[in-house]
Amino acid sequence: MALITISGFPCSGKTRRAEQIRSSLETYIHDESYQGPITKVVLLSDDTLNLKRSSYDDSRSEKPARGALFTAMQRQMASDTILIVDALNYIKGFRYQMYCAAREMKLRVCTVFVVATQGLCREWNSAREDGLAYAPETLENLLFRYEEPSSMVRWDSPLFTVLWTEDAPPMPQIWEALTKGVVKPPNSGTLAVTKPPTDALQALEQTTSSIVSAILADQTGIGGKLILSTSMSTPSSKPAITLPICTITLAELQRLKRQFVTVHKKAITLGTTEKGAVDWGEESITAKFVTYLEEHLRS
Predict the structure, then answer these.
(1) Domain positions in the chain
(2) Is Lipid biosynthesis given among the entry's keywords (predicted)?
(3) Which CATH superfamily is domain 2-190 in?
(4) Are the beta carbons of 1 and 102 closer than 8 angstroms?
């Protein structure tokens, strides 16, 4: 149903804000006035996945840690769930990846930017006694590399900023974004392309050749509707074509056939097929080729 991305400096108070958001959302869900599809709130974090702070010491260990977080996030996404991802999420490319995954699942999204000064983050990190502190050099590296969210980009929007001086996040606005915000369609670049069958090229060539042969054999030159006796069609499904008042030559039909085959061959080999299911059967190819011929023989 929705994805909340928590982002901010390390030791800026993200976990506290995530817990506040989770508690408030559960209150909204269990309210008697709410009759929507959301039934649960899931909080996902480095701690729930047992990812150590040392994972961020270098890129070699950080990459699999981010991969584990992303995989767990995909597993938890559901139409009845609000998923809160409480992690550094400091790389805008990773936030974009999360955004695309949410779009594929048709989830609403929002980003909560937890703000604290770098001085406070250093102070809070050094004061931790729970064994979850960052190494000083790791903390400085993460502070330097942090890429701040922006409301100007779609993967960070809508963006809610929570300062360290504020008591709580703006829950009414967050709840409205999660329940009434626009559900954006999946990114076309992430959609799986329907692959044609392995014999699609052969079927394309044989079917169009059969149509050309039938037109040459059956045409009368007086135009009008003509039922074609193709070798590949059953008696109950013989194709019909409307021809102009003239005798159509083999050269003209071969030229149109080559053009039609070239266009569809490119669609087959490169995967640039039209949206939706594509039928590469004989009847479908016949109908497309007949329509193509009718349009171009009139011109």
Answers:
(1) 2-190, 200-297
(2) no
(3) P-loop containing nucleotide triphosphate hydrolases (3.40.50.300)
(4) no
Residues 6+ apart with CB under 8 A from 211: 228, 230, 239, 241, 257, 286, 289, 290, 293
Cα–Cα distance for residue pair 120/31, rounded to 1 Å: 37
Of the candidates 205, 203, 294, 212, which has an alpha carbon nearest to the alpha carbon of residue 251?
A: 212
Give the pairing type, strands 240-243 and 224-227.
Answer: antiparallel
Any idea what the Cα angle at residue 110 is, between residues 186 and 150, rounded to 5°? 100
3-class secondary structure for 61-88?
A: HHHHHHHHHHHHHHHHCCCCEEEEEECC
Q: What is the dihedral of CA 113, 116, 122, 123, to 10 degrees?
A: -130
**Residues 8/113, Cβ–Cβ less than 8 Å:** yes
Residues 6+ apart with CB under 8 A from 298: 244
How does pLDDT run across 134-152, given as a tens digit for each residue?
A: 999 999 999 999 999 999 9
Cis ω for the linkage preceding 158 (within 30 of 0):
yes
CA distances to 17, 51, 176, 220 from 232, rounded to whole Å, are 68, 62, 59, 22
Structure token pair of residue 94: 């990773």
Q: How far apart are CA 33 and CA 189, in angstroms?
A: 39
Cα-Cα end-to-end distance for the chain = 52
Nearest to 138 by CA among 67, 85, 90: 90
Other CB atoms within 10 A of residue 63 CB: 11
How far apart are the C-alpha atoms of 227 and 219, rounded to whole Å? 9
**If phi over 0 gives left and psi between -120 and 50 gives alpha, with beta otherwise, what is residue 50?**
left
> What φ, ψ does residue 45 adopt, rounded to 5°?
-150, 170
pLDDT in tens, 209-235: 888 888 888 787 777 787 877 665 555
DSSP string, 231-246: TTS-GGG--EEEE-SS
